[in-house]
Amino acid sequence: MSLLEYFLRHQREILQATVEHVWLVGVTMVLSVAIGVPLGILVTRRPWLSRPILGGANIAETIPSLALFGFLLPVPWLGGRADRLAIVALTLYALLPIIRNTSAGITGVDAAVREAARGMGMTDGQILIQVELPLSLSTVLAGVRVATVLTIGIATIAAAVGAGGLGEFIFRGLAMVNNQLILAGAIPAALLALGADFLLGTLERRLRPGR
Amino acid sequence: MSSTANRPPGNEPVIEFRQVSFRLNGGQELLKAVSFRVQSGETLVLLGRSGAGKTTALKLINRLLEPSSGAVLIEGRSTIAWDAIALRRHIGYVIQEIGLFPHFTVERNIAVVPRLEGWTEDRTRARVKELLEMVGLNPTEFAKRYPHELSGGQRQRVGVARALAADPPILLMDEPFGALDPLTRGEVQREFQALEQRLKKTVVIVTHHVSESLALGTRIGLMEAGKLAAIYTPKEFLESTEPVTAAYVEHLRMHEGIKGGE
Fold this sequence. Notes:
Shape of chain B: globular
Largest interface: A-B, 19 and 24 residues
Radius of gyration of chain A: 20 Å
Structural class of chain B: alpha/beta
Order of helices and strands of chain B: HEEEHEEHEHHHHHEHEHEEHH
Largest sheet of chain B: 6 strands, mixed
Helix content of chain A: over 70%
Radius of gyration of chain B: 18 Å
Order of helices and strands of chain A: HHHHHHHHHH
Largest sheet of chain A: none
Oligomer: heterodimer
């Protein structure tokens, strides 16, 4: 049986797993942007927080993903629901690129532009909203893009704790030594990553300030 | 220029430096016991080489920096006693062309302070149009452009228009014409001179160009290594026998063409 036939025969399951996967990644990205961007801003306002915040995110990044899912399993509120656990773990991974790019984007705003804003009598909040964030938007988005692609990949491992998604096929395929089953998870996941990369990359170029 | 130079003495100065020193956190003293007064309608040029403390002095006026000792008085009140935001909106600020917001159109760049001050849309739009015409840019052609779509001279004009937007009585300019080629520079300078004669703002300009100082200043403050060495009228400056001043004048005669004596 060819791979294409296999995919067609199982299209409903594949589609369902893809939807689960997109849901996991989507919730993760909303959460990690909601947490990561403010933390990135905070780092530029309170430089002494830069080491604990970036350091913490860095450490989370170095924990092997399978191990992290395992570590979180006994945590009371998380262990009970696999998708909840997966989203928390994935969010921890996605934070670093978002925090780092947000602070780098803001720090990278031309000092003369910031000084002009201050000299014209903008408050710190006005400088942030009207000048710094718009000018660093493409850098922030580059961080979101990296984090999204990363999350799509790592989310396949969430299947190991029963959170569903395209990883289901991969783990099952590995257990049954069935390549078609592995590819049924791997190919859609790769396509998702490519698609997200392309879409966010396009948006990022659109938002790049000036010329 | 003569009308402002002959203003009767004894008026309260708009800007006054009283024994102002400024030192960095590390301890390096950038400004040493500087005192001067700028009367209403005057244009004071701070002239000196890089690192002489000119820009530091300028930033003390709109409280981007605060004096380590001494006081800077604006309209009789110490900058420390002013609300920093209110003070800055009271003072127009022009820095080198790069200070325009690259993500705003010309129109929005000029409208920054009026918007901060909560002007209505109609009033702001009318003011932007008026200012663009005042600095010699056609509003229909330029209002919707972005800074990178302008030449250096046009950007500079927008910078001046932006600083004048809310009609502040005081104008600070840091190397305002620094990045321009000599021809454009002369042109924008002359326009600014005409503008200043009409608007009668109190202006402080920082520059290292001698000819610019003579063209724009009603008085010229010569800065050397954090100190205000002397203040001259343009005529006194050209006639001074002080070694440093004479060196500037000599340089002027050799490199920037003889323009003095008027």
